[in-house]
Amino acid sequence: MSNKSLFTNRTSNPVSPTPVADTVNAAGGDAYASEPKQALAQIAATNCFNGTYYASASDNLNLAREAALKLKNDPTFVAKVAMYSRTKGYMKDMPAFLMVMLADSNRELFNKLFSHVIDNGKMLRNFVQIARSGATGRKFNMSARGLRKTITSWFHNRDARQLFKDSIGNDPSMKDMLRMCRPKPISEEQEALFGYFLGKDIEVDRLPEIVRQYENYKRTKKGVVPNVDFRQLDSLGLGTVEWTEIARNASWQMTRMNLNTFARHGVFNNKEVSKIVAARLNDPEQVLKSKVFPYQLMMAYKATESNNEVPGEIREALQDAMEIAINNVPSIDGQVYVCVDTSGSMGSPITGDRGLGSRANSSVSCVDVAALVASTIVRRNPNAKVLTFQSTAQYVPLNPRDTVITNTSKLAKAGGGTNCSAGLATLNKDKAMGDAVIYVSDYESWVDSSRDTGYGFGTGMLSEWNTFHARNPKAKLVCIDLTPSDCSQVKEHNDILQVGGFSDTVFDVVRSFINHGTEKNHWVDEIESVQLPD
Fold first, then answer.
1. What pTM value is reported for the model?
2. Do residues 27 and 106 both lie within one domain?
3. pLDDT (tens digit, 9 = 90+) per residue, 32-85?
4. Based on CB atoms within 10 Å of each CB, which residue in 1, 30, 344, 468 is the most buried?
5. 426-479 tens-digit pLDDT
6. Last residue of some domain: 200, 224, 248?
7. CA atoms within 13 A of residue 110's CA, in its CB half-sphere
8. Is 178 part of a structural domain of the chain?
9. Domain span at 123
10. Could you write out the three-class secondary structure of 203-247?
11. Do 210 and 334 belong to one domain?
């Protein structure tokens, strides 16, 4: 018989060898260490500095610090990650953290970027808190001339209404920040406003109009409710009439966050206001402008689902808003498979655990978001097939005509061990043909790491992908990661996209990769294309 190693049918697509795993993940399973830029991008899009299933809050802090330090000699990329994670990923803690790192490594970039990343009072509090903590390796003096100049410019570029809203919150409070940073006011009105924040005895007539309106209403409880943030009104003991007026004039985000509050105060007994609120919630322009996470809409829907005082039209409007928020989900030509991790570790809060029994934890888990991603893809790609996996995988039929929220509830149940190779192994067992496979997971695979699984010294997921890709040479693999990590189950390659985060911007990257991507580090290249301010 002729030598088969020499005389093989050259038209076939041989399975690529699987490289040896070079690290372990937090669950102790085989993994591949991410390249520094990929690691920082992934961590910046997912890290909320809280505990995750396998890592503590301090572990995730160390992870972020080490990832940023590895790129200390490339401050431009760090700046672009900070910009991307804030403006595209809508993150709060990581952008502020990276700005503190930049303050230490490249003050010129820091100054240019500051107002673009630190874009409201919450972000300024995050920045000041991190800078003073020393968590980045250096404890900053907030009254030092360089920082004072940058922060003073931030105050000067915000109008009275913005600063009044920025004053909400503590640790540090606006009073604390003014004392630490000592910005000089640029007008008599701003001088009076700073004095007001500092608790000084200020003549009311010198204050900005919005503050005068608020103080007058707080004192008299008469007249029109001032158009300020609801948190500035919440402690005033308002009744149904006042809350109805607030609901009538509320912003989109304020409306989404206070539906149960409105119901509790009898706002929805007014049919006219109920219609106004519903129309606001499903207004396409306002939904897109709000930069809402799709999962936040799901959270609002779940929070009102059991409240009989919230009218059905409000819940229907939330479902409409969800359809608008996922409008940029890609329509993929050909057959697409979505593999949803439903293992036990996916039951942890999507924004991390703030502590045992903490009421501050998000009610939305990683598996909720993974299920939401799958449901949105099915909505735009009716022929898509969904598999859930734990130790093993199974197909889950979804009706693409059902709402995203309905389909999400069918998938969002977590439990069992993590075997990331299971979804692809099932497709390979069925000799499935396809054009794209999309995974949503935390990638803490360990079930398939044992040497007796037959995958040798590489990861099972990459081995199964190589088999699938040999059968479908034009297919692409998309790995959406929901938790911070500096390793993965696959290696960067021109047919593999690794992207992190839970904002709808992820879908922009997925669309770009599936339609046009041919480079090895597609997501990193997307971040490299970010234009920094002059």
1. 0.90
2. no
3. 999 999 999 999 999 999 999 999 999 999 999 999 999 999 999 999 999 999
4. 30
5. 999 999 999 999 999 999 999 998 766 778 789 999 999 999 999 999 999 999
6. 224
7. 19
8. yes
9. 91-224
10. CHHHCCHHHHHHHHHHHHCCCCCCCCCHHHCHHHCCCHHHHHHHH
11. no
